[in-house]
Design a protein that fits this description.
The protein is an alpha/beta fold. It is 31% helix and 31% strand. The chain is built from 7 helices and 12 strands. Helix 1 packs across helix 6. The longest helix has 18 residues. Bound molecules: glutamine. The site of glutamine (GLN) has 12 residues, from helix 2 and strand 8.
Amino acid sequence: MRIALLYPELLGTYGDGGNALVLRHRARLRGVKAEVVSVAIGDPIPAAEIFVLGGGEDGPQRLATDALRADGSLAAQVDAGSRVLAVCAGFQILGRRFAIAGGADYEGLGLLDVETHRGARRRVGELAVIAGDRTLVGFENHGGETTLGAGLTPTGSVVVGYGNDGRTDGARLGNVIATYAHGPVLAINPWLADHILEAVLGRPLDPTSTSAERLHERRCAQVVHSRSRRP
Ligand code: GLN
């Protein structure tokens, strides 16, 4: 299994490259051969089962968008079955357009029917999202606010933090999962890493009981605790 980490020099500000390492680690834990290929700006995008896009600041985010557009092969691979995990700037890049500091709009790749506007203030802090029967925890740090087109499903409902708009976080469409959660999100939500791997492998994976599961449970308990202290 090949996991392509796209432009870590541009989209590595928040440590989201760790998501690729977690996918590789959890695949190998189950005896699945997996490699991470870091794709530098200007390199052709290789064939891969999973693409990982991370967060970044506005300038690098634009450069990454330009490079993805110039390469042009991501959408076709996603159509053909490759999976994508996109975090924050990575999420915004996949949308129709995103605002950059100063207010100008920038055209995204249009893989997701979302638009990102400049919010009233930067959203920085803990993020917790109820995603079906799971809780997704992480932290967020972004100035953009994202509106989902009709028919697009978010990853879940925000219970702590802001996400897209104070109510929902991220988006899911076909093979693409996008979220505002850093962490790296797969390191502290191992269930989500396994969900992506299971989709690629087309079979359920044996559950594991590692420090990652314990860390996730602890974070979830802390979130519940911090909510219960709120007025
Ligand atoms: N530059 C984008 C914003 O501020 C994304 C930031 C990020 O990736 N954390 O909204």
